[in-house]
Each structure stands twice: as C-alpha cells, then as structure tokens.
Amino acid sequence: MIYRRCGHSGIKLPVLSLGLWHNFGDIDSYDVAHDMVLTAFEQGICHFDLANNYGPPPGSAERNFGRILSSDLKTHRDELFISSKAGHDMWEGVYGTGSSRKNIIASCDQSLLRTGLDYFDIFYSHRYDPETPIEETMQALIDLVKQGKALYVGISKYPADKQAEAYAILQEAKVPCLLSQYRCSIFDQKAKHTNFESAQQAGSGIICFSPLAQGLLSGKYNQGIPADSRVAKGSMFLQTSHLTQERIEAAKKLDELAQKRHQTLAQMSLAWVLNDERVTSVIIGTSSPQQLMSNLKALQNLSFTEEELQIIDVIADNPLISF
C-alpha cells in the first residue's frame, strides 16, 4: 500500500480508502461485507469511511461495521482510521437533518453507539447547510474534538466560499480541518478547479469519492445494463437517464486507452484521480473482495504520459459528459 501525508498534519492515509456508502447495509450480505473489510485491512487499507445515513436503512452500515470491528478488529483499533459524518436526512422530525449543533452532536453520539467506538478519528460536516450559520456548525465540530469524541474534523461537499470560511473558523480555534471531501472523477472535475487549491492552501488533505462516477467508469455499462448493477436495482444515485450515449461512448474510448496501459477502465480512472498530488486518498466502493483486489491493482501503474493525459482531457471535454 502507498500512503500519503494528509495536508499539514502528522496523519498518513492509504491512497485507497474503503467507503461503506453502498453494500454494507442491512439489505446486503453481511458475510460479503465482513470479507471486504478484512481483505481491505490485510491489504493495508486502514481508513474506513462511514456516515450516519449509510445503509440502507440509515445507520445500518455503521452497525454492521461495528459488528465486524468487535468480532475481528477490536485489538487493531489503533491501526485504524475511522470516519463518520452528519448532515443529511437521518431521522424523522425537524432535528433529524441539517448541520445545526443539535444535529451534529446528537448524530455523533448515535454513530459512536452504533459502531461501538469511543471516538472517531475524524468526524465531518457532511454538507453545507444554508439554513445554519457556518459558525454554529464549525463550533459543534470543534466541541466534538474538545469532548474527545473525535480526534480531527473535516468538511464534505462545501462550496468554495463556505469552504474558506470553515477553514478560517477552525484554524482560529486551533482545530484545523484535516480533510476536505469532494466528488471527483474523469467525468466530474469541478472540485479540481474550484476546491482543491483552497484546501491545499489551508493545509487540508483532500479525499475524493465517486472516482468511478457511480460505476460509469467501471466499464460495466459499456455493453448495456447488467442485471446485478445499481441501475438495474433502481439506485437513486445512478439512474438510467445518466447512461447517455455520450457518456457510454466516452467510457468506451477511455477503456481503449486503459487497455493500452494494461489496466481496466476502473483501474485507470482511480489512477487518474491519484495523479493529482494534492489528493491524499480516494474512496473506493466495492461489492466483493474480488472487486476490491482488482481496484488495488491500480497502484501498479499510477503514472501517465503527457499524451495519455491529453487524450483523457479531449475525451472528457464535453459538457454532455460532465455531471
């Protein structure tokens, strides 16, 4: 495994982290989830990315991870870097969503109970909430650190102006933002141009999710919709309408380049995100230990020639492709 330093901190993270957004809920196979976590740890992936609403149902991914942690990894706690987040819809009622102090503190407490942890290594504000003053949200994160419930704090999906405000508030309180989490892929490069530089200047690490554009850059949809795919199962995140002819044709062209690099499209797409040295880690979501091992092979070839990067830029330079 390759590890990169996280911003201006003493933390190093594996360049590939395992996300539990999909495939770890109660509707999924616990045995498969168990095997994926253990396989990841055995391969040097020590960072596991959670959120309170991951499932489905919401909360079940944290519970299942806590079960795996208790049965197999409890004695390895100090070798693990575990994150969770709060801010999206979680429970019924007016306080079950958003980034108020009440929601952030209550969510962290609930997440600690579900996972069986004493603390999170990092706790994020999962989204910017325009209805809550940013000072209130950041103070809640600061207090989680002071209360010993989190070692570090982070932000996720914050627009550039609010991102800068968050950094300033946290820095003044001497609880700097350890990680900034943004969506990034060949098909979605907005954060590279609007958020990465600010994070680097503030000394925050950058961790990217959806590097395969919810599967569009996995190659699985190049010949149609597989019966076991997210689209076929009715995912609310990747839908049939996203599988446009332009995106499929672009994925096929990228696949041709990947084959010349002796990689799968997924492996090349992961390598492309990591080619930006500002990126600390990329969160991968896998449905089996075999898929996890395949993704890890991306690390065998992380370098690109200028010609390869230009080819990718030309293919991706189409507004009909970008998310």
Give helix % range: 25-40%
Q: Which range does the strand content fall in?
A: 15-25%
> What is the residue-averaged pLDDT?
93
Measured between the Cα atoms of the first and last residue, the distance is: 30 Å
Return residue spans where pLDDT drops below 50 for at least 5 consecutive residues.
none
Order of helices and strands: EEEHEHEHEHEHEHHEHHEHH
Secondary structure class reads alpha/beta
- CATH-level-2 architecture of the domain at 3-219 and 280-287: Alpha-Beta Barrel
Number of extended strands: 10
CATH superfamily of the domain at 3-219 and 280-287: NADP-dependent oxidoreductase domain
CATH topology of the domain at 3-219 and 280-287: TIM Barrel
What's the arrangement of strands in the largest beta sheet? 3-4-5-6-7-8-9-10
Q: How many helices in DSSP terms?
A: 11
Q: Sheet bearing the most strands, described?
A: 8 strands, parallel, barrel
Architecture overview:
- With 323 residues, the chain is α/β, with parallel strands linked by helices.
- The chain has a domain at 3-219 and 280-287: NADP-dependent oxidoreductase domain (TIM Barrel), CATH 3.20.20.100.
- It has 11 helices and 10 strands.
- It is globular, with a radius of gyration of 19 Å.
- The mean pLDDT is 93.
